[in-house]
Amino acid sequence: MIPVLVIVLCTLFSIPVLTLLTSLGASSDGVWQHLVDTLLLEYISESLLLMTGVGVLVLVLGVLPAWLVTMTRFPGSRLLELALVLPLAMPAYIIAYTYTGMLDVAGPVQSLIRDTFDLSYGEYWFPPIRSLGGAITMLGLVLYPYVYLLARTAFLEQSVCVLEVSRTLGASPRRTFTRVALPLARPAIVAGLSLVLMETLADYGTVQYFGISVFTTGIFRTWFGMGSETAAAQLSMVLLLFVLTLVILEQWSRQQARYHHTSNRYSALPRARLTGWRSITALLYCGLPVLAGFIIPVVQLILWAVETWALIDTSAFFTLFFNSLKLAGLTALLGMGLALFVAYGRRLFPTRPVRSGFRILGLGYAIPGTVIAVGVLIPFAWFDNTVDGFMRDNFDIATGLLLSGTLVAVVFAYLVRFLPVALNTIDAGLGKIKTSMDDAGRSMGLRPMQILHRVHMPMLKGSLLTAALLLFVDVLKELPATLILRPFNFNTLAIRTYELANQERLAEASSSALMIVLAGILPVIILSISISRSRPGNA
Amino acid sequence: MRKLLILLVAALAAPLTGAQEVNIYSARQENLIKPILDRFTDATGIAVNLITGGADTLITRMAREGANSPADLLLTVDVGRLHRAKQQHLLSPVSSTVLDSLIPAQYRDSEGYWYAMSLRSRVIVYSQDRVDPSELSTYEALADSKWRGRICIRSSSNIYNQSLTASLISHKGISEAESWARGLVANMARPPQGGDRDQISAVVAGQCDLAVVNSYYLAGMLNSGDAQQREIASQVSLFWPNQDGRGAHINISGAGVASNAPNREEAIRLMEFLVNDESQEWYAETNGEFPVRDSVPISDTLKAWGPFKADEIALEQLGIYNADAVRLMDRAGWR
């Protein structure tokens, strides 16, 4: 029963991706050939460059700070331990708007340079913000927390014994980090990295704003500019190939090393107190991502919000705020439950169909929100119209659109898009529970459900919370699926922000942008604290 | 549990019931349309339900919802998408003496599938310091090598650039339009990026000497609540292109009644409301667009730009050549 349900669920949530596949059959009317002749290579190479750049940046910003705040103490380290996750509350498109406002040719920074040194444009060098490098920086700044969070969890879970053995064998702290801790944390870091790369591939807001030709921008252009759904679906398929490669690499990397700690005796991690220049370097290194990824953009948003407060319509803010929270909360709870069920089903019944269902389910995360939204629109409308037709024919009742244009469709799209995040988190949590514990439970006469309830649940609480909070924050920031699928007269903070920013009224968009960030801070902080406490034996 | 689920679905799918209402799928964003819709509700008692979004996705949604779609009226901010909706049989013809008498024939579909509600032109905005208006003439002349590295224009993914290029294809043919696009690309001061206000700011910052933008963006900056925006806008001037020839390129914001509209009468009443004196003045005043009717007074900002000659091309041509325009711009390297 359970494996069947798991497969049914996996199929249900794969429908939008499968819908894409069905439009492949049609002729693209020469559009595909046109793409091959003109832009396809550029889409591929720019996407690869963007992924590489963001990948390197998130590793640099995420891994070492995670090690430093876990294993050392320096002035501000406790605060930074929490603050390093803050950029997770910042949507990529908003940080892009904000930095563009500050650093663009016409922005205050360059204007100041020109006025101070009496230069005109072209007489000085300034890094162009709207460039591939700019996009890499923006995405890296808001996505590194995924790597940081997972790396920190891994570092917190490591056994003191292993580290002590390394030290007694004469390895320096640095060598212990590179030769022992880092390899042990590798599966977690790779998992974080793959989340980041999927987000990068799915990003539309930032790349579109910076005018970069990657897959997402290409898909939109092909679909809407040239009106070719088929060619757009074909492009999406090339994108999916990228994603599949990522998923397989990630799972391969995890299979290479399945670490269970054999000792259950955890003692507190020894934290080295850094002094002198070491402590200053650590402070700077860990402070920089927070400063650039959170503090600077938030200060700029606050300045704009103060400046424009009188101009904007704030009457609807409460409703917008409530709508955003409602969707985020609902999706977080549903997603957590579904992910637990599916991950648990796979653990109990790791048959081939279940495992492939699981893998397909993981694809949604890398697909642009708009593509998913249309992938939801098509089957939902088909379903509604079929039901309506059937009811009219047989019972003379018009049911109209039952699901299309309702929040059901919106939440479904969120789940298709973000369920992989919850799934990965919970699956990783389950993976840490030794199968020998299941066996012990079974031998004591517990049924599977009882094992879940009495053995796994207490051990999984942390992962469940993490999954729910990540879903919550992701939904809060989500834009395209909400925009396309929402019911009449239903707005969220993200929609309000986007509409004003899209009219290039960045300053006026700042108030609602700020509210998205504020709404995301609390969950993100809870997330960070709960991970700090996750170390077994840590009271 | 099952009951709860049914209740939940029913509550979420709260049927649109009761009194008179009209359902709008609008590509015009909420803050730019809601005030006038509220006035409509006040004046007529007809409630307005609104979804905003990209025109293409709204059209996709209408198409997939099919006969059961709740949409009564599709509002777009360019004619290409209205044409596309008509092609996909999503719109139905309207015959209204009010609309037909108030809106010039040029600005409505010959068969009544869509009507313009306001006009905008794509114009040249130039630096007062570095460009003498006597150097300017036509869109075509922007491909001249004397503008090498001096022009700012946004991405070819933008519908207004696609429409402008489509108009050139319609007037001059594909090959001439393509060599124009190549010349323009060679003259760009930077890879296309940002929106139209960004292009104007870049002119003032000195990155380029002129920009091609929609007229209402300049009006919006001139009347902005933000002093910095006003300061930037005051340093550029507007030039009407092709005044000795076919006239400046025009696009519209417009509306069409859905082919399956459940509230067809109300939708037509709303369209008629949107072209009455009060609404037309509001458009011009608040959004910096030109009224679709000659007789309606325009704001001082728009008056200051002087009268201009508009391209009289049949607007559906812009829709017909849209896909060709995109391919052409791809080939020309216009990003």
Question: What attributes characterize this protein structure?
Answer:
heterodimer, A: 539 residues, mainly alpha, MetI-like fold, 2 domains, 2 strands, globular, B: 335 residues, alpha/beta, D-Maltodextrin-Binding Protein, domain 2, ten-stranded mixed β-sheet, 15 helices
Describe what is shown at a glance.
Chain A has 539 residues and is mostly helical. Helices cover 76% and strands 1% of the residues of chain A. In chain A, helix 14 (317-348) runs parallel beside helix 22 (506-532).
Major beta-sheet overview of chain A:
2 strands, parallel
CATH level-four homologous superfamily name of the largest domain in chain A = MetI-like
Nearest-angstrom radius of gyration of chain B? 21 Å
- Please tell me the total number of domains of chain B: 2
Low-confidence stretches of chain A: none
Radius of gyration of chain A: 24 Å
Proportion of residues in β-strands of chain A = under 5%
| CATH topology value of the largest domain in chain B | D-Maltodextrin-Binding Protein, domain 2
Helix fraction bin of chain B: 40-55%
- By DSSP, the count of extended strands of chain A is 2
- Per CATH, the architecture of the largest domain in chain A is Orthogonal Bundle
The CATH class assignment of the largest domain in chain B is Alpha Beta
CATH topology of the largest domain in chain A: MetI-like fold
End-to-end CA span of chain A: 40 Å
Average pLDDT of chain B, to the nearest integer?
91
